Amino acid sequence: MxxxxxxxxxPAACTAALYTARADLSPVVLEGEFSQDILPGGQLMTTTxxxxxxxxxxxxxxxxxxxxxxxxxxxxxxxxxxxxxxxxNFADRPLRLFCGETEISSHAVIVATGxxxxxxxxxxxxxxxxxxVSACATCDGALPRFRNNVxxxxxxxxxxxxxxxFLANFxxxxxxxxxxxxFRASKIMSDRVISHPKITVEWxxxxxxxxxxxxxxxxxxxxxxxxxxxxxxxxxxxYFAAIGHKPNxxxxxxxxxxxxxxxxxxxxxxxxxxxxxxFACGDVQDRIYRQAITxxxxxxxxxxDCTRWLEAQQxx
Length: 316
Ligand code: FAD
Ligand code: NDP
Prior knowledge:
Blueprint: E1 2-7, H1 11-22, E2 28-30, E3 49-50, E4 60-61, H2 62-75, E5 79-81, E6 87-89, E7 95-99, E8 102-111, E9 115-117, H3 123-127, E10 133-134, H4 137-140, E11 150-154, H5 158-167, E12 173-177, H6 187-195, E13 199-202, E14 205-213, E15 217-225, E16 231-235, E17 238-241, E18 245-247, E19 278-280, H7 292-312
Parallel strand pairs: 1-2, 1-8, 2-5, 8-19, 10-17, 11-12, 11-17, 12-13
Antiparallel strand pairs: 3-4, 6-7, 7-8, 9-18, 14-15, 15-16
Helix pairs in contact: 1-2, 1-7, 5-6
Bound molecules: flavin-adenine dinucleotide and NADPH dihydro-nicotinamide-adenine-dinucleotide phosphate.
């Protein structure tokens, strides 16, 4: 029987593992088995340079940062396993998790399964990922390749508006590509985008392809007018998908409370879920900030909440 099992392998899980390991809870971290949907190490494994994680004045690669976070937790006794949780039973005590045929019982569980940025599904998005294609302007917008250059943002919601406004601080011109003739974004955000001198909105337009070469990356997008069907090419060096995120919560359907977008709901100012002994942290419960440092911070909160809860149950 485990005291605490952490599901996930990103910054939230690693930080929760560090804190629970230092509390002598000997956490098991199930970080998933590599597959199309599961990436041990989390989202940062897909990026090159992370420049905004405190403590790295020169920046650090996503893979190195994750290796460091994992090593730090392991130093205090956290045990990482490449296992994907396929089913949970939180109805009875102890809590039970299933990785295929393998069953694990635990007093407490910390959920840190993250979220996945949605892309349009174009082959070129995969080809140019980190070479002009991104789903995070806050992460990549300040990179030299985008400065004073032309970039496009796909989407018409608040995320697209925020990304476009952020990118306008660096880029020479930002084109927002939206498939309809009005934004889904809130009025205030829409107004800011529409009135911004460096932003142009391409209404009724969809991206059908991204052009470029493997060395220099993105050089243009192909746009199709949804009304006339006409296609044209728009030169740009950056393509930011901002059509929403999908939290990795299918596993918890009907078990843990979620909002209308599928994010886990935690009690205000805490990591407690609706299920006794189950805590949530990181992007899986954060529809707003979704940064490595906020994920790590909430991983710390979940570990502290979990440690205190176990103490209250007199499990140590
Ligand atoms: P994730 O990193 O998403 O990790 C979730 C983990 O859960 C994964 O390891 C996955 O394998 C595991 N998992 C999921 N389901 C299961 C399951 N059923 N069983 C077992 N394991 C499971 N943020 C920044 O602050 N700075 C940046 O520069 C930056 N760059 C980014 C670049 C890109 C391309 C992307 C996509 C994101 C970037 N972000 C950046 C955002 C940052 O990566 C996320 O906010 C952060 O990784 C969230 O951490 P997390 O631990 O909540 O989840
Ligand atoms: P939304 O679901 O609100 O918007 C997604 C946008 O992407 C929509 O405009 C949608 O178009 C478009 N889209 C979706 N799929 C496709 C596709 N396949 N091809 C082309 N376009 C597509 O997601 P967001 O991430 O923007 O926002 C999620 C939630 O988070 C919202 O509640 C939002 O208010 C909130 N949020 C709030 C912020 C703030 O308050 N500052 C910042 C960021 C998010 P269409 O409109 O035609 O459906």
